[in-house]
């Protein structure tokens, strides 16, 4: 772990922000950098329904711009000397996070778990659980 960067996937929630403190602590401990990642869902639209007044591509671009704005705001609030890289991707959160985590230069993933259980756990994809089970590097799940 001592050689790779820390990957901190975020959805900009309070729970994810809590995990950032752990990511910074681990990065300082191992003297590595942090890579902050946000994944924007790929909008799905069927032109036959005429439900969207903009194209799925335009919607995705708007979502990416909003994520970039939130990322910029987050970086302005950080008080650290660590080198921080940011990534915004479009697609399925689990697949995109795993692709980054398994890219070879990530030493650890620090990810928040929203702590869903019961029916909510069944109906919602548990991103943290999937990443922890499939990543090749260590994963710290923070709740």
UniProtKB/TrEMBL annotation:
<dbReference type="InterPro" id="IPR006016">
    <property type="entry name" value="UspA"/>
</dbReference>
<dbReference type="Pfam" id="PF00582">
    <property type="entry name" value="Usp"/>
</dbReference>
<comment type="similarity">
    <text>Belongs to the universal stress protein A family.</text>
</comment>
<protein>
    <submittedName>
        <fullName>Universal stress protein</fullName>
    </submittedName>
</protein>
<feature type="domain" description="UspA">
    <location>
        <begin position="5"/>
        <end position="143"/>
    </location>
</feature>
<dbReference type="InterPro" id="IPR006015">
    <property type="entry name" value="Universal_stress_UspA"/>
</dbReference>
<dbReference type="InterPro" id="IPR014729">
    <property type="entry name" value="Rossmann-like_a/b/a_fold"/>
</dbReference>
